[in-house]
Amino acid sequence: MNANRFKALVLRTGGTNCDLETKVALEELGVKTEIVHMNSVEKKNLLEYHLIVFPGGFSYGDYVRAGAVWGKRVLAKLRLELEKFIEEGRLILGICNGFQVLVEAGMLPGNGAGETPSIALANNSSAKYECRWVWLRVENDETPFTMTMRKGEVLRIPVGHAEGRFLTRSEEDLEELKRNGQVVFRYVLPNGDDANGLYPFNPNGSMYDVAGICNKKGKVMGMMPHPERAFFGWQLPEWDRRPPEKGDGRKIFESIVKYLHDSNGL
Amino acid sequence: MRKLYDDLEVYVIDLSSANDNELLEISREMGLNISLDRMKYLKQYFSNRPPTDVELEMIAQTWSEHCFHNVFKGDVVTDDGRIITNILKTFIVRATRELNKEWCISVFEDNAGIIDFEKGYAIAAKVETHNHPSAVEPFGGAATGVGGVIRDILGVWGEPIALTDVLCFGPLDTKYEDLPSGVKHPRYVYSGVVAGIGSYGNNMGIPTVSGAIFFDKGYTGNVVVYCGCIGILPRELYVRNTGEGDFAVLAGGRTGRDGIHGVTFASVGLTEEAEEFRSAVQIPNPIVEEKLRRAILRIRDEKLASGITDLGGGGLSSAAGETAYRSGLGIDVDLDKVPLKVPDMAPWEIWVSESQERMFLSVPEKNLERVLEIFQEEEVEASIVGRFVGSGRVRVFSKRRVVCNLDLKFLFNPPKVTRRAKIPEFTRVEVNLEEPKDLGEEILKLLSDPNIRSKEDVVRTYDHEVRGCTVVKPIYGDEAGPSDASVIKPLKDSWMGVVISCGINPFYPDPYWMAANSIEEAIRNNTAVGGRRIALLDNFVWGNPENEENMGKLLRAVEACYDFSKALDAPFISGKDSLYNESPLGPVKPTLLITGVGIIPDIRMVITPNLKKEDNPIYVIGLTREELRGSAYLRLKGVDSGEVPRVNKNLSKKIIDTLVKAIDEQLVLSCHDISEGGLGVAAAEMVVATRGLGIEFDISKIPSETRRNDYVLFSESASRFLVEVDGNKSRRFEELFFGMPFNRIGKVVRDVGLRIVDSKSKICELNSSDIKKAWRGY
Questions:
Q1: What is the per-residue pLDDT across B65-112, written as a single tens digit (0 to 9) for each?
Q2: Is the minimum CB–CB distance between B616 and chain A shorter than 8 Å?
Q3: How far is A77 from chain B (nearest CA, A)?
Q4: Residue of A nearest to B497 (CA)
Q5: How confident is the model at residue B258 (pLDDT cuts 50, 70, 90)?
Q6: Residues of A34-68 as b/e, b for ≥16 C-beta within 10 angstroms?
Q7: Nearest CA-CA distance, residue B551 and chain A, Å
Q8: Which of B322, B404, B356 is nearest to B62 (CA)?
Q9: Is residue B644 part of a domain?
Q10: Does A152 reach chain B within 8 Å, measured CB to CB?
Q11: CB B331 within 8 A of CB B388
């Protein structure tokens, strides 16, 4: 599959720190990837890109609420362009801090930018930073980010965050997300069974063990775990004797490429 | 003391008429911590004109123990009649020079040691201490320790890729009533330090991959915080040629009143009044440093600057003075150009402030505009604060008037310090201890000892995966077992890995063997995962060197550094000493951290501690002797006698080289270094890392000079490994080790965690879940 004609934009700002490895993952699959600072993003035409990634980090120090400052800055600078981008069904992926940004900018779980956040990624219930490998179950295999996987498939990907506890305002809100197929990944036990909040399998106390969600169209996705840290086999926490070829995080990027290929870029 | 100019907060201090008491009073009043001898030297030097406060402050910073390392560079007179000049050069640097490795690019000269890697890249490494600040303000002290060592790597144009930290605290269950006034509770210090370390590394996106935590009464008054950083840089971009006419650019955080007198504060003991020095501790802001890093690396890649250094101890005064001096130049600095946090700072405060997240660059005129543009794009404040000149002097201006004008040669050649050393002697006391009946019980007790048990609860609060380059993590696998060393794969297009390990044995009372064991342990840990070509870093944390006994112990430890660096073919590339670790509870436990930085040609070949296959043979390599003094076992029993482990130079080298060979021939499937807690604990730790398999071994087969079972299991003799060998390749393995002490002692089994037998009779049997529960706590 030739992915050379696809272009990805990885945004960064002060405190972003996972942009490089995200670029490595995309380029490994042939996607042309540019890392652009928020300060020079005006010089870019977003609609030239097929994918925008908000990578992990501690944007602006996350001193207010994780992702809040960058989220508002994104709206102030890019709102109209992003709305167009989303409307055209182009892909946006937020990883960890990037997920928090998408929530704070109202792009998740909503369908456009600018809405008030209706969900939160709150402090972990363990009250500390958690760096550990978790098991994720694919709940929706029809999004561009999961189309190469099977529903129920279990992925191994690490998390690293202090604020990842997924919360909705009400049970009804959660039910709606479920109904819409917006829950993409859930934390599960190693055998794939529900974690039911059990620590450390659900590392942060997320409602309904939610690890990643998408918008209604499935084209904007945010997830707390870091697929770029589980891209190569040698990144895995345990090998038998020699590392496996690939990590599970790679599947998410492969799925993006397949989607772009199948849909001819859109 | 009178004002130099009416409208400037600059004073001149008349030394010429001061008597000895007054000289000392001046030193104390101004917080200079300059000794009487040196004050008298200054009095003479400044007989023509009185110095300004800016000048005296600069001298005090430059000459402080923290910045100048007077003790390591001075004379030592021993009680057995020797006079040794410059123990740093005589022992540590000499080993490196004699080993003369072509892969050592820059050692003991710059902010960090630099060694060759591959594909035109080099590795930079540095370890620092931040003890005093962490004792006063644990979170800020530890965080700025991390921030400082990261800047040391940036200060050699390195991109930081990994952090290490080794921490020593008082026992967490210390009673409040046992703490004298001015000493904070270990639990308060512990939580602050751990949070500070995690916060800085996580925020900057640099993985914290390696470390250790110790608890002992000897650290209750003096917490020890070692922060290390490893970086990578293209060799050709290591630039250090500041020229006359280049501009001095100060970039990063603003300069404030935080961190004033940090180094002079760190160069005396902590007292009850330490709280008053809270202002000597800087305030951390990792995001500023994150931006600074981006900008610095861009400037490096575009080859725009001629030199760089970080602002650490002594602040701008040290950075400017050192850069000018090492370039054979002089410098003019304008303090009005320094961006300030508060407007009303006196010139001397601006000059010596140690505010964090600042870097100092020398930039040729033609590149100045581009450099400032990059800083602006990365949202980093930068300003031109001075210019390098040919004068050989440092001149500082405030409101267009000179407030400091010093000869750099004078400044960087302070009068030598002489210390007296009393060489410690140790007499052997027989161990008097009844052999316990249930050795399995002893193993479990040792596994849950605070100094041995898993530190997972702390390690998981540090991001060790960010950057996506961590191959062997600080906690191994899903069973969360111990790792001997961490491995990083820094380059996308190369399989070569960097192996990071540490060795530290503060519990061995004899400083010579303490140092020898620490060096060997750092190398052993590195070797156990497949590392080789190991470079060492030394970090001494000691009590007041003016005390002859402290000095004697220090000298013995430094002597061992030469002996074992040389014998084990591992050069020192960088180091740092922190002396004057004194508190109302007395001196710190003398502590030497050795950090090992090795390489592995292909990270896919790393060896991990988890057992691989049932029935594979288990070997012990090395000789067990009755060496239990300071061991975890005797400490548990409250006994302090016997002998500390001694390292046999020749045997050690042979064993380590042979193990590397065995690993390269793919004979070794899993390996664990035998150290704290001895063979019994090492075997149990391998079981922790493993799912569904265990070890059975025969204690009578262990090559040992003692036959008492508890001593065999818990002695901490050096140069030993526990190895699982591929069952089909054991003959070749035995061939390789022929002539060295080793033996096949057992095998990997499926039915039990750990079974120890003596010939035929069973000694103990532990199941995996009990072993894991003891070590991990769950």
A1: 989 999 999 999 999 999 999 999 999 999 999 999 999 999 999 999
A2: no
A3: 16
A4: A234
A5: confident
A6: ebbbbeebeeeebeebbbbbbbbbbbbbbeebbbb
A7: 42
A8: B322
A9: yes
A10: no
A11: yes
State yes or no: is A228 an active-site residue: yes
B709 touching chain A per CB within 8 A: no
A contacts of B463 (beta carbons < 8 Å): 129, 131, 160
Asked if the structure places residue B210 within a domain, the reply is no
Give the length of chain B: 778
β-sheet with B159-169: strand ranges across:
B104-106, B113-116, B121-129, B224-234, B159-169, B208-215
Identity of residue B563: D
Name the helix (H) or strand (E) containing B533: strand B532-541
Whether residue B484 lies inside any domain: the answer is no
Domain span including residue B12? 2-61
SS (H, E, C) B562-629: HHHHHHCCCCEEEEEEECCCEECCEECCCEEEEEEEEEECCHHHCCECCCCCCCCEEEEECCECCCCC
10 Å CB burial of residue B19 (0-12, 13-18, 19+) is exposed
Bridge partners, residue B499, by sequence: B487, B598
Burial B474-502 (b: 16+ CB within 10 A, else e): bbbbbbbbbbbbbbbbbbeeeebbbbbbb
Closest alpha carbon within chain B to A244: B604
Does residue B577 fall inside a structural domain? no
Number of domains chain B is built from: 2
Model pLDDT for residues B211-234, shown as the tens digit of each residue: 999 999 999 999 999 999 999 999
**pLDDT tens digits, A108-117:** 998 666 667 8
Domains of chain A: 7-262 (3.40.50.880)
Its ipTM equals 0.95
